[in-house]
Automatic annotation (TrEMBL):
Annotated keywords: Disulfide bond, Membrane, Repeat, Transmembrane, Transmembrane helix
Cystine connections: C117-C129
PROSITE patterns, per the entry: LDLRA_2 (PS50068)
Membrane topology: Single-pass membrane protein
Subcellular location, record wording: Membrane
Chief location: membrane
InterPro entries cross-referenced by the UniProt entry: LDL_receptor-like_sf, LDLR, LDrepeatLR_classA_rpt
PANTHER family linked: LOW-DENSITY LIPOPROTEIN RECEPTOR-RELATED, LOW-DENSITY LIPOPROTEIN RECEPTOR-RELATED PROTEIN 2
The name this protein goes by in its record: Uncharacterized protein
Record-linked Gene3D superfamilies: Low-density Lipoprotein Receptor (4.10.400.10)
Biological process (GO), any one: vesicle-mediated transport
Source organism: Adineta steineri
């Protein structure tokens, strides 16, 4: 007869051995297939073996995506003002603030960034250290099955291919962070780019929907996304009649009526959503009379931010005690987004003490700010300073004496 027991029993037994205490009040349940769980309370509806079920879960993931539930990191209370956020463990120390009330998910992460590795170690982009033997050890032949040791994949960046991850339950897909700060982590090895405020390309496993990332169209008293914001989206976003009937019909009968409601009943300018959309302080705003069709309907008319974190930006007005700037003053190029500008305001490296940068050989100060970044972030392909000073020749990347950098032959650049 086969028996089974939950894997966390090992941890409980280890605790018993370490603490040398009695556990006579605890009951051990030895489960008979097909039952499993801490008290044998679960079983699969399908008449399959456990190994067959897991294989089917990998081979045919779409069968399990309709009613997706997600796992939340329970050891940290993450609040976004009026509601709790389901925090994925990969979103801790990922470079952006998700817990908007207190920034708990990025607290103390600067210690990881300033970490110094041993001589025989390679330093990942996020500060972690791995044995040097693992750096770029996969090779061209294994391009499809590259398994980085760094959580951010920086040790195998040239060969990292995550397209097959939704059907792959290996560590290379489970234990991976998004390379771009603005990407949404689907939790299966895939990351979806958030292009300005143009929404998210849906995750294959529907995690973005499961955590209610998008606003609730049917909730007319939604404190996060006002009615005015939803109506404006119906006006400015190009939607089919079917999608209009699905999302907008409860707000207004047609596009023209939406325009009238927006102009007559909404304030001239408003912020939406009510909570920050980036790094705990950046908010998007809209003008109610801006009812012309936009190529990407969610693009803001202005951005509000903490002026102390972004001293290099010159505000144009204030709204509801927020410092704001018209987006046309950001001088965005076709490849830029609002996030690219405000990444230079990232709180992780903001320093109030002058001594943190002074005399340090491992940090460099961004010009015109009180922000210091690790020198290894110079010329790494990601602009951390305003005007991308850290990605310029002036940052003197070849003076770092980093054996893992590639030195260009035609110019004085050493790429990370």
């Amino acid at each position: 007869m086969e028996w089974s027991s939950p894997i966390d029993l090992i941890e409980r037994y280890e605790n018993f051995l370490q603490m040398n205490t009695s556990s006579s009040t605890e009951v051990f349940y030895n489960c008979t297939p097909p039952w499993f769980g801490s008290i044998c309370q679960y079983r699969f509806v399908l008449n399959e073996s456990f190994s067959s079920f897991i294989q089917m879960r990998i081979d045919e993931p779409q069968l399990f995506y309709a009613n997706t539930t997600v796992t939340c990191y329970i050891h940290m209370k993450c609040s976004n003002h009026s509601f709790l956020t389901c925090l994925d463990w990969r979103e801790i120390c990922d470079g952006k603030v998700n817990c908007l009330d207190d920034g708990e998910d990025e607290k103390y992460c600067v210690e990881l960034e300033m970490n110094q590795c041993e001589e025989n170690e390679y330093q990942c982009r996020n500060g972690m250290c791995v044995n040097e033997e693992f750096f770029s050890d996969e090779g061209i032949v294994l391009i499809r099955i590259s398994s980085p040791e760094c959580l951010d994949g920086s040790d195998e960046a040239r060969f990292l291919d995550q397209r097959s991850c939704p059907r792959d339950s290996s560590f290379r897909c489970e234990d991976i962070l998004c390379r771009q700060y603005t990407d949404f982590n689907c939790g299966d090895g895939n990351c979806r780019a958030v292009i300005a405020t143009r929404g998210i390309m849906p995750c294959t496993n529907n995690r973005d929907r499961a955590i209610n990332y998008f606003f609730d169209w049917d909730n007319l008293v939604d404190t996060r996304y006002s009615r005015c914001f939803k109506i404006l989206m119906c006006v400015t976003h190009v939607v089919s009649q079917i999608r209009f009937d699905k999302y907008c019909k409860s707000l207004c009968n047609n596009t023209q009526e939406c325009k009238i409601q927006t102009i007559e009943h909404c304030p001239p300018a408003f912020i939406a959503p009510t909570f920050p959309v980036w790094d705990g302080h950046v908010r998007f705003g809209y003008f109610s009379n801006a009812t012309s069709i936009k190529l990407f309907g969610y693009e803001p008319d202005f951005v509000c931010y903490n002026k102390d974190l972004c001293p290099f930006l010159i505000p144009t007005f204030t709204l509801d005690n927020h410092t704001c700037l018209h987006t046309n003053r950001l001088n965005l190029t076709s490849s830029d987004t609002e996030y690219d500008i405000f990444r230079a305001c990232n709180q992780l490296f903001q320093n109030d003490k002058e001594s943190i940068c002074q005399g340090s050989t491992t940090t460099v100060r961004c010009l015109g700010t009180n922000k210091c970044i690790p020198t290894r972030r110079i010329m790494d392909g990601f602009a951390d300073c305003y005007n991308a000073f850290d990605e310029s020749i002036a940052a003197n990347s070849c003076a770092l004496n980093d054996k893992h950098r590639f030195q260009c032959t035609s110019e004085q650049k050493c790429l990370s």
